[in-house]
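dumping this here before i forget
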Amino acid sequence: MLGPLVVGAALSLTACSPEMLLPPALRPGAEVTPAPEVETPEATSEETPVETPEVPIDPEDTDVFDIFLGDCLTEFGEGEDEISSVPKIDCAEPHVYEVYHVENIEDSGAYPGETSVSDSAQELCEEAFEPFVGVDYYSSSLYVLPLFPTAAGWEAGDREVLCLIYEPDVDTTGTLAGSNR
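structure:
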């Protein structure tokens, strides 16, 4: 068996911290204001039914800073120097990648270079692999793809790594958590 393929891709442009990923009402120090009461009209027996729009199952391009732990993605521009959006899809639908871990690189200095950031991101993803899947990364048939900050993102304060997990040449439905593969 060939060892897992290690592929690096880069997040781009602006800073993103885990607190920024939370909805505004859940961020530390946020004040929650109750919604104003709205009067509802009385129901009549002659109401027309309202159509419920179908939720599309096709992937939607989503800004990389709007990708969260547990999100699933379809193919995107691997090998590109910078990625600003990715096709996000419901995990119940066939998908390629699942975000299984999110963590910041603990370095506050100047950008250490793409190789150093890529290596740090790969290390973070490998450390989180076994607790998520249930087997050691190098014994697994699954691969990881870390998305990490570019030099421009780093200078803007971005240190976030998104760890994606996937099975080569196979679309996954559901999660790979506890799959022991």
